[in-house]
Amino acid sequence: MAQLDIVDVGHAYAPGIEEERWALKPLNLTFESGKTYALVGPSGCGKTTLLNILSGLVRPSQGQVLFDGADVTALPTKARNIAQVFQFPVIYKSMTVYDNLAFPLQCRRWDRARSDAKVRQVAEALDLHDRLAQPARGLTADDKQLISLGRGLVRDDVAAILMDEPLTVIDPQLKQMLRRKIREITEQFRPTVIYVTHDQYEAMSFAQEVLVMKDGRAVQQGTPEQLFEAPSSTYVGYFIGSPAMNFLTVDRDDRNFALGGRTLSVAWDIPHGTTAVEVGIRPEYIKAVTEPGPNTFPGRLRAVSDHGAQRVLEVEVAGQLLRAKTPREEGVPDGDDVLIHLPRAKVLPYADGQLVLQS
Ligand SMILES: Nc1ncnc2c1ncn2[C@@H]1O[C@H](COP(=O)(O)OP(=O)(O)OP(=O)(O)O)[C@@H](O)[C@H]1O
């Protein structure tokens, strides 16, 4: 597997338009060998364009694509040695499962014994070992998608596996299972994987590193934990997490903050000269409490909704609506008057939509 670098890569589908309207604004990225990455963002943010630039389907308007340091920008897809998994499984329906998996190795003239061992190893990992003799035609969509993935995994020489919304045609009940399977397999075989999805949950549960995109820009790259704990912008705070991060307007007197006239104690300093500040806090960190104390604020319970094992409480505090996500077993507060606690360490400052912390 290879390290993929994109160096000052940008792309406009219509030549000559101003950079602000490019599908992908010039950017630099490194995808390390053996790691799994998710490109996530709303429709039209440039995920597929970036993936297609890596695969060679799109030649970027500017910049270079490097595979292990070698410039592949001008090379067609075939010459890049990548495996691709698309929204719809691409398999040979008339061939058996075995032959589908063995086909890429036959094309590379692997000897029979080596190819057989590899096909069986991958089939075992994919749980397809008991169906190797079956024609692929009769398999379910999730098994067909596993074959598409398997065809990439059998090849030792593949630089990267690129996946474009691979769970789109999978039944909702099977999605979770297939996602887990893909994750297990990538942990076992450690390919470089770049996975495009518009589903933040899919991205966060699958990838080691998540790249959040907006309007053709990469706005934050980090581990799922980093994106959850410290979104670099309100955009990432809204996009990642369910419900989204809460953002509150607070009263401020220099470095002192207050909410509804009560002190909001915070764990950070903001850079000198920072003007309007709002604070962000994840719903998971807000608790309804019974005893007043530091950083507790009175509110009014407006709604409660069930999210399976968890509940979301909508509480109005100082004229603003906050969402708190609580485990089901914690129950619902008695009455509409509630007290909520905002843990000091989990409150983050944002100015002009960007995280601002004193370095
Ligand atoms: N072949 C094309 N010709 C012209 N414009 C295109 C083409 N492909 C994509 N675009 C435009 O480029 C921008 C980025 O599209 P892209 O498909 O990369 O986004 P995306 O994040 O993958 O979206 P989606 O999730 O809907 O596929 C969009 O404005 C889109 O309309």
From TrEMBL:
GO terms for molecular function: ATP binding. It comes from Streptomyces cinnabarinus. This is ABC transporter ATP-binding protein. SUPFAM superfamilies: MOP-like, P-loop containing nucleoside triphosphate hydrolases. It comes from the Bacteria. PANTHER family: ABC TRANSPORTER ATP-BINDING PROTEIN (PTHR43875:SF14), MALTODEXTRIN IMPORT ATP-BINDING PROTEIN MSMX (PTHR43875). Transmembrane segments: none annotated. Keywords: ATP-binding, Nucleotide-binding, Transport. Residues 4-240 form the ABC transporter domain. InterPro entries: AAA+_ATPase (IPR003593), ABC_transporter-like_ATP-bd (IPR003439), ABC_transpr_MalK/UgpC-like (IPR047641), Mo/tungstate-bd_C_term_dom (IPR008995), NA-bd_OB-fold (IPR012340), P-loop_NTPase (IPR027417), Transp-assoc_OB_typ2 (IPR013611). It holds the Pfam family ABC_tran.
